[in-house]
Amino acid sequence: MAMKSKVLIVGGTGYLGKRLVKASLAHGHETYVLHREEIGVDIEKVQRLLSFKQQGAHLVIGSFNDHQSLVKVVKLVDVVICAISGVHIRSHQILLQLKLVDAIKEAGNVKRFLPSEFGTDPARMENAMEPGRVTFDDKMVVRRAIEEAGIPFTYISANCFAGYFLGGLCQPGFILPSREQVRLLGDGNQKAIYVDEDDIATYSIKTIDDPRTLNKTVYIKPPQNILSQREVVQIWEKLIGKELLKSSISEQEFLAIMKEQDYAEQVGLTHYYHVCYEGCLANFEIGDGAEEASKLYPEVKYTTVEEYMTRYL
Ligand code: NDP
Protein backbone atom coordinates (compact mmCIF):
# COMPACT_ATOMS: atom_id res chain seq x y z
CA MET A 1 0.00 0.00 0.00
CA ALA A 2 1.20 3.52 -0.80
CA MET A 3 2.63 5.50 2.10
CA LYS A 4 0.28 8.06 3.58
CA SER A 5 1.46 11.61 3.20
CA LYS A 6 2.76 13.57 6.13
CA VAL A 7 0.50 16.56 6.69
CA LEU A 8 1.07 20.04 8.08
CA ILE A 9 -2.02 21.91 9.25
CA VAL A 10 -1.69 25.68 9.45
CA GLY A 11 -4.47 27.39 11.42
CA GLY A 12 -5.05 24.17 13.35
CA THR A 13 -6.51 25.92 16.36
CA GLY A 14 -9.40 27.36 14.36
CA TYR A 15 -13.02 26.43 13.85
CA LEU A 16 -12.30 24.31 10.79
CA GLY A 17 -8.59 23.76 11.46
CA LYS A 18 -9.13 21.70 14.62
CA ARG A 19 -11.37 19.36 12.63
CA LEU A 20 -8.73 19.00 9.94
CA VAL A 21 -6.20 17.97 12.59
CA LYS A 22 -8.65 15.40 13.97
CA ALA A 23 -9.46 14.01 10.52
CA SER A 24 -5.82 13.84 9.49
CA LEU A 25 -4.95 11.84 12.61
CA ALA A 26 -8.04 9.64 12.19
CA HIS A 27 -6.96 8.76 8.65
CA GLY A 28 -3.54 7.67 9.85
CA HIS A 29 -1.47 10.57 8.53
CA GLU A 30 1.57 11.68 10.45
CA THR A 31 0.22 15.09 11.38
CA TYR A 32 2.13 18.29 12.14
CA VAL A 33 0.40 21.37 13.48
CA LEU A 34 1.92 24.82 13.24
CA HIS A 35 2.31 26.42 16.63
CA ARG A 36 2.69 30.10 15.88
CA GLU A 37 4.95 32.00 18.22
CA GLU A 38 2.40 34.84 18.26
CA ILE A 39 -0.13 32.69 20.15
CA GLY A 40 1.53 34.03 23.31
CA VAL A 41 -0.68 33.47 26.32
CA ASP A 42 -3.85 32.54 24.45
CA ILE A 43 -4.63 29.75 26.87
CA GLU A 44 -7.44 28.18 24.81
CA LYS A 45 -5.25 27.83 21.74
CA VAL A 46 -2.30 26.49 23.66
CA GLN A 47 -4.50 23.94 25.44
CA ARG A 48 -5.95 22.87 22.10
CA LEU A 49 -2.46 22.42 20.66
CA LEU A 50 -1.47 20.34 23.68
CA SER A 51 -4.53 18.16 23.21
CA PHE A 52 -3.49 17.56 19.57
CA LYS A 53 -0.10 16.48 20.87
CA GLN A 54 -1.75 14.04 23.28
CA GLN A 55 -3.65 12.61 20.31
CA GLY A 56 -0.41 12.00 18.43
CA ALA A 57 0.21 15.19 16.43
CA HIS A 58 3.59 16.91 16.32
CA LEU A 59 3.62 20.59 17.21
CA VAL A 60 6.07 22.63 15.17
CA ILE A 61 7.02 26.20 15.97
CA GLY A 62 6.97 28.81 13.24
CA SER A 63 5.83 32.32 12.41
CA PHE A 64 4.40 34.12 9.42
CA ASN A 65 6.93 36.85 10.27
CA ASP A 66 9.87 34.48 9.85
CA HIS A 67 10.13 33.03 6.36
CA GLN A 68 12.85 30.52 7.22
CA SER A 69 10.80 29.16 10.13
CA LEU A 70 7.98 28.40 7.69
CA VAL A 71 10.35 26.82 5.16
CA LYS A 72 11.71 24.59 7.91
CA VAL A 73 8.31 23.25 8.96
CA VAL A 74 7.09 22.84 5.38
CA LYS A 75 10.16 20.70 4.66
CA LEU A 76 8.97 18.17 7.26
CA VAL A 77 5.85 17.18 5.31
CA ASP A 78 4.39 16.19 1.94
CA VAL A 79 1.09 18.04 2.18
CA VAL A 80 0.19 21.46 3.59
CA ILE A 81 -3.38 22.35 4.50
CA CYS A 82 -4.12 25.90 5.53
CA ALA A 83 -7.27 26.87 7.41
CA ILE A 84 -6.31 30.43 8.25
CA SER A 85 -9.19 32.72 9.17
CA GLY A 86 -11.43 34.16 6.49
CA VAL A 87 -14.64 35.34 8.12
CA HIS A 88 -14.64 39.10 8.64
CA ILE A 89 -16.82 39.10 11.76
CA ARG A 90 -14.11 36.87 13.33
CA SER A 91 -10.85 37.56 11.48
CA HIS A 92 -9.74 37.65 7.84
CA GLN A 93 -6.11 36.78 7.11
CA ILE A 94 -6.40 35.10 3.70
CA LEU A 95 -3.59 37.12 2.06
CA LEU A 96 -1.11 36.10 4.78
CA GLN A 97 -1.06 32.81 2.92
CA LEU A 98 1.15 34.46 0.29
CA LYS A 99 3.94 34.04 2.83
CA LEU A 100 3.13 30.37 3.13
CA VAL A 101 3.13 30.04 -0.66
CA ASP A 102 6.62 31.60 -0.73
CA ALA A 103 7.80 29.11 1.88
CA ILE A 104 6.29 26.14 0.02
CA LYS A 105 7.91 27.35 -3.19
CA GLU A 106 11.33 27.62 -1.56
CA ALA A 107 11.01 24.29 0.27
CA GLY A 108 10.20 22.61 -3.03
CA ASN A 109 9.06 19.28 -1.53
CA VAL A 110 5.31 19.74 -1.17
CA LYS A 111 3.17 17.36 -3.21
CA ARG A 112 -0.13 19.04 -2.45
CA PHE A 113 -1.31 22.34 -0.96
CA LEU A 114 -4.88 22.97 0.14
CA PRO A 115 -5.22 26.71 0.76
CA SER A 116 -7.83 28.21 3.07
CA GLU A 117 -10.88 28.12 0.81
CA PHE A 118 -13.65 25.85 2.10
CA GLY A 119 -16.55 27.98 0.92
CA THR A 120 -18.05 29.35 -2.29
CA ASP A 121 -15.80 28.72 -5.28
CA PRO A 122 -14.12 32.13 -5.72
CA ALA A 123 -13.50 31.44 -9.41
CA ARG A 124 -17.27 31.60 -9.99
CA MET A 125 -17.66 34.94 -8.18
CA GLU A 126 -16.09 37.44 -10.59
CA ASN A 127 -19.31 39.47 -10.46
CA ALA A 128 -19.76 39.32 -6.69
CA MET A 129 -20.99 42.39 -4.86
CA GLU A 130 -18.96 44.81 -2.78
CA PRO A 131 -17.79 44.62 -0.08
CA GLY A 132 -18.10 40.84 0.31
CA ARG A 133 -16.24 40.16 -2.91
CA VAL A 134 -13.00 40.81 -0.97
CA THR A 135 -13.19 37.22 0.30
CA PHE A 136 -13.30 35.82 -3.22
CA ASP A 137 -10.78 38.32 -4.61
CA ASP A 138 -8.25 37.52 -1.88
CA LYS A 139 -8.71 33.78 -2.33
CA MET A 140 -8.12 34.24 -6.08
CA VAL A 141 -4.91 36.19 -5.38
CA VAL A 142 -3.70 33.21 -3.36
CA ARG A 143 -4.73 30.79 -6.14
CA ARG A 144 -2.76 32.78 -8.71
CA ALA A 145 0.33 32.77 -6.50
CA ILE A 146 0.04 28.99 -6.03
CA GLU A 147 -0.36 28.35 -9.73
CA GLU A 148 2.42 30.76 -10.75
CA ALA A 149 4.75 28.99 -8.30
CA GLY A 150 3.81 25.63 -9.85
CA ILE A 151 2.68 24.22 -6.50
CA PRO A 152 0.37 21.17 -6.82
CA PHE A 153 -2.98 22.04 -5.26
CA THR A 154 -6.54 21.02 -4.48
CA TYR A 155 -9.19 23.69 -3.87
CA ILE A 156 -12.02 22.60 -1.60
CA SER A 157 -15.34 24.28 -2.25
CA ALA A 158 -17.24 23.24 0.86
CA ASN A 159 -20.39 25.32 0.38
CA CYS A 160 -22.20 26.29 3.63
CA PHE A 161 -20.75 25.37 6.99
CA ALA A 162 -23.71 23.71 8.69
CA GLY A 163 -23.12 25.44 12.02
CA TYR A 164 -23.63 28.89 10.55
CA PHE A 165 -26.40 28.14 8.09
CA LEU A 166 -28.46 25.32 9.63
CA GLY A 167 -27.98 26.65 13.14
CA GLY A 168 -29.66 29.88 12.13
CA LEU A 169 -32.22 28.39 9.72
CA CYS A 170 -30.27 30.26 7.00
CA GLN A 171 -30.82 33.67 8.63
CA PRO A 172 -27.73 35.84 8.97
CA GLY A 173 -27.05 36.87 12.54
CA PHE A 174 -28.52 33.69 14.03
CA ILE A 175 -26.76 30.46 14.90
CA LEU A 176 -29.43 28.80 17.01
CA PRO A 177 -32.78 27.82 15.47
CA SER A 178 -35.87 29.48 16.88
CA ARG A 179 -38.85 27.34 17.92
CA GLU A 180 -41.20 30.25 17.27
CA GLN A 181 -40.42 32.10 14.06
CA VAL A 182 -38.27 32.43 10.99
CA ARG A 183 -37.64 35.10 8.39
CA LEU A 184 -37.39 33.72 4.88
CA LEU A 185 -34.90 35.35 2.53
CA GLY A 186 -37.11 36.23 -0.43
CA ASP A 187 -39.35 33.29 -1.21
CA GLY A 188 -36.95 30.94 0.59
CA ASN A 189 -36.82 28.65 -2.41
CA GLN A 190 -33.21 29.04 -3.63
CA LYS A 191 -31.25 25.87 -3.10
CA ALA A 192 -28.02 25.89 -1.11
CA ILE A 193 -25.72 23.11 0.12
CA TYR A 194 -25.04 22.47 3.81
CA VAL A 195 -22.09 20.44 5.04
CA ASP A 196 -21.19 19.30 8.55
CA GLU A 197 -17.81 20.84 9.31
CA ASP A 198 -16.38 17.48 10.41
CA ASP A 199 -17.43 16.04 7.05
CA ILE A 200 -15.66 18.92 5.29
CA ALA A 201 -12.50 17.94 7.14
CA THR A 202 -12.93 14.25 6.30
CA TYR A 203 -13.47 14.88 2.59
CA SER A 204 -10.55 17.33 2.52
CA ILE A 205 -8.20 14.74 4.01
CA LYS A 206 -9.46 12.12 1.55
CA THR A 207 -8.34 14.29 -1.39
CA ILE A 208 -4.73 14.78 -0.41
CA ASP A 209 -3.30 11.49 -1.66
CA ASP A 210 -5.82 11.08 -4.45
CA PRO A 211 -4.47 11.60 -7.98
CA ARG A 212 -8.01 12.34 -9.20
CA THR A 213 -8.04 15.60 -7.25
CA LEU A 214 -4.61 16.88 -8.25
CA ASN A 215 -4.76 20.50 -9.47
CA LYS A 216 -8.53 20.47 -9.30
CA THR A 217 -11.41 22.04 -7.44
CA VAL A 218 -13.37 19.55 -5.36
CA TYR A 219 -16.93 20.60 -4.58
CA ILE A 220 -18.59 19.04 -1.54
CA LYS A 221 -22.23 18.53 -2.54
CA PRO A 222 -23.81 15.75 -0.46
CA PRO A 223 -26.93 15.06 -2.54
CA GLN A 224 -29.39 14.95 0.38
CA ASN A 225 -28.11 18.27 1.68
CA ILE A 226 -28.98 20.40 -1.36
CA LEU A 227 -32.00 22.18 0.04
CA SER A 228 -33.78 25.52 0.08
CA GLN A 229 -34.27 27.56 3.23
CA ARG A 230 -37.93 26.50 3.23
CA GLU A 231 -36.89 22.84 3.13
CA VAL A 232 -34.45 23.37 6.01
CA VAL A 233 -37.24 25.01 8.00
CA GLN A 234 -39.58 22.10 7.21
CA ILE A 235 -37.01 19.63 8.56
CA TRP A 236 -36.73 21.65 11.76
CA GLU A 237 -40.50 21.92 12.07
CA LYS A 238 -40.78 18.15 11.74
CA LEU A 239 -38.15 17.68 14.45
CA ILE A 240 -39.84 20.04 16.92
CA GLY A 241 -43.36 18.98 15.93
CA LYS A 242 -44.50 22.54 15.37
CA GLU A 243 -44.90 25.05 12.55
CA LEU A 244 -42.92 28.28 12.79
CA LEU A 245 -44.42 31.68 12.20
CA LYS A 246 -43.01 32.84 8.86
CA SER A 247 -42.26 36.27 7.50
CA SER A 248 -40.12 37.24 4.55
CA ILE A 249 -37.53 39.86 3.72
CA SER A 250 -37.44 41.03 0.13
CA GLU A 251 -34.23 41.41 -1.82
CA GLN A 252 -34.55 45.23 -1.77
CA GLU A 253 -35.13 45.32 2.00
CA PHE A 254 -32.20 42.98 2.60
CA LEU A 255 -29.86 45.17 0.55
CA ALA A 256 -31.09 48.36 2.22
CA ILE A 257 -30.51 46.92 5.71
CA MET A 258 -27.11 45.64 4.62
CA LYS A 259 -25.95 49.15 3.68
CA GLU A 260 -26.57 50.34 7.26
CA GLN A 261 -24.26 47.73 8.83
CA ASP A 262 -20.56 48.02 9.54
CA TYR A 263 -18.02 46.68 7.06
CA ALA A 264 -17.51 43.21 8.58
CA GLU A 265 -21.28 42.62 8.81
CA GLN A 266 -21.73 43.79 5.22
CA VAL A 267 -19.17 41.28 3.99
CA GLY A 268 -21.11 38.43 5.60
CA LEU A 269 -24.47 39.71 4.40
CA THR A 270 -23.17 39.95 0.83
CA HIS A 271 -22.33 36.25 1.03
CA TYR A 272 -25.81 35.39 2.30
CA TYR A 273 -27.25 37.47 -0.55
CA HIS A 274 -25.40 35.48 -3.21
CA VAL A 275 -26.29 32.17 -1.57
CA CYS A 276 -29.90 32.77 -0.56
CA TYR A 277 -31.26 35.22 -3.16
CA GLU A 278 -29.16 34.24 -6.17
CA GLY A 279 -28.63 30.56 -5.43
CA CYS A 280 -24.94 30.83 -6.38
CA LEU A 281 -23.97 27.49 -4.81
CA ALA A 282 -26.41 25.21 -6.55
CA ASN A 283 -27.18 26.90 -9.87
CA PHE A 284 -24.41 25.28 -11.93
CA GLU A 285 -23.21 21.87 -13.01
CA ILE A 286 -19.72 20.76 -12.07
CA GLY A 287 -17.71 20.95 -15.26
CA ASP A 288 -14.55 19.30 -16.53
CA GLY A 289 -11.49 19.87 -14.40
CA ALA A 290 -13.45 19.59 -11.16
CA GLU A 291 -14.76 16.76 -8.98
CA GLU A 292 -17.51 16.19 -6.42
CA ALA A 293 -16.53 14.75 -3.07
CA SER A 294 -19.50 12.51 -2.28
CA LYS A 295 -19.12 10.84 -5.68
CA LEU A 296 -15.36 10.38 -5.24
CA TYR A 297 -15.76 9.01 -1.72
CA PRO A 298 -19.11 7.20 -1.47
CA GLU A 299 -17.77 5.33 1.58
CA VAL A 300 -18.01 8.50 3.69
CA LYS A 301 -21.32 8.44 5.53
CA TYR A 302 -22.00 12.14 5.53
CA THR A 303 -24.25 13.88 8.04
CA THR A 304 -27.64 14.77 6.62
CA VAL A 305 -29.32 18.07 7.42
CA GLU A 306 -31.86 16.27 9.59
CA GLU A 307 -29.15 14.46 11.53
CA TYR A 308 -27.23 17.69 12.01
CA MET A 309 -30.30 19.54 13.27
CA THR A 310 -31.16 16.98 15.93
CA ARG A 311 -28.29 18.44 17.96
CA TYR A 312 -30.37 21.58 18.53
CA LEU A 313 -33.31 19.70 20.06
P1 NDP B 1 -10.87 30.90 12.30
O1 NDP B 1 -11.41 32.28 12.45
O2 NDP B 1 -11.33 29.88 13.26
O3 NDP B 1 -9.28 31.04 12.31
C1 NDP B 1 -8.46 29.98 11.92
C2 NDP B 1 -7.04 30.19 12.33
O4 NDP B 1 -6.43 31.24 11.60
C3 NDP B 1 -6.77 30.60 13.76
O5 NDP B 1 -7.08 29.60 14.69
C4 NDP B 1 -5.29 30.94 13.67
O6 NDP B 1 -4.57 29.73 13.68
C5 NDP B 1 -5.19 31.52 12.25
N1 NDP B 1 -4.98 32.96 12.33
C6 NDP B 1 -5.85 33.90 12.75
N2 NDP B 1 -5.25 35.11 12.73
C7 NDP B 1 -3.99 34.92 12.31
C8 NDP B 1 -2.89 35.77 12.08
N3 NDP B 1 -2.94 37.07 12.31
N4 NDP B 1 -1.74 35.21 11.62
C9 NDP B 1 -1.66 33.90 11.38
N5 NDP B 1 -2.69 33.04 11.58
C10 NDP B 1 -3.83 33.55 12.04
O7 NDP B 1 -11.12 30.39 10.78
P2 NDP B 1 -12.34 29.57 10.21
O8 NDP B 1 -12.21 28.14 10.58
O9 NDP B 1 -13.59 30.30 10.55
O10 NDP B 1 -12.11 29.74 8.62
C11 NDP B 1 -11.30 28.86 7.87
C12 NDP B 1 -11.69 28.94 6.39
O11 NDP B 1 -13.04 28.51 6.23
C13 NDP B 1 -11.61 30.35 5.77
O12 NDP B 1 -11.09 30.25 4.47
C14 NDP B 1 -13.05 30.79 5.73
O13 NDP B 1 -13.30 31.72 4.68
C15 NDP B 1 -13.78 29.49 5.51
N6 NDP B 1 -15.16 29.52 6.06
C16 NDP B 1 -16.20 29.08 5.29
C17 NDP B 1 -17.48 29.11 5.78
C18 NDP B 1 -18.60 28.57 4.96
O14 NDP B 1 -19.78 28.65 5.39
N7 NDP B 1 -18.34 28.00 3.82
C19 NDP B 1 -17.79 29.59 7.13
C20 NDP B 1 -16.61 29.95 7.88
C21 NDP B 1 -15.35 29.92 7.34
P3 NDP B 1 -3.28 29.42 14.60
O15 NDP B 1 -3.38 30.29 15.77
O16 NDP B 1 -3.43 27.95 14.88
O17 NDP B 1 -2.12 29.71 13.72
From TrEMBL:
Gene3D superfamilies assigned: NAD(P)-binding Rossmann-like Domain, UDP-galactose 4-epimerase, domain 1
Cross-referenced InterPro entries: NAD(P)-bd_dom_sf (IPR036291), NmrA-like (IPR008030), NmrA-type/Isoflavone_red_sf (IPR050608), PCBER-like (IPR045312)
CDD domains: PCBER_SDR_a
Key words of the record: NADP, Oxidoreductase
GO BP: any one term: (-)-secoisolariciresinol biosynthetic process
Residues of the NmrA-like domain: 3-309
GO MF entry, a single one: pinoresinol reductase activity
UniProt-listed Enzyme Commission number(s): 1.23.1.1, 1.23.1.2
Top-level taxon in the UniProt lineage: Eukaryota
Protein family (similarity comment): Belongs to the NmrA-type oxidoreductase family. Isoflavone reductase subfamily.
Subunit structure, as described in the record: Dimer.
UniProt name for this protein: (+)-lariciresinol reductase
Phylogenetic placement of the source organism: Eukaryota, Viridiplantae, Streptophyta, Embryophyta, Tracheophyta
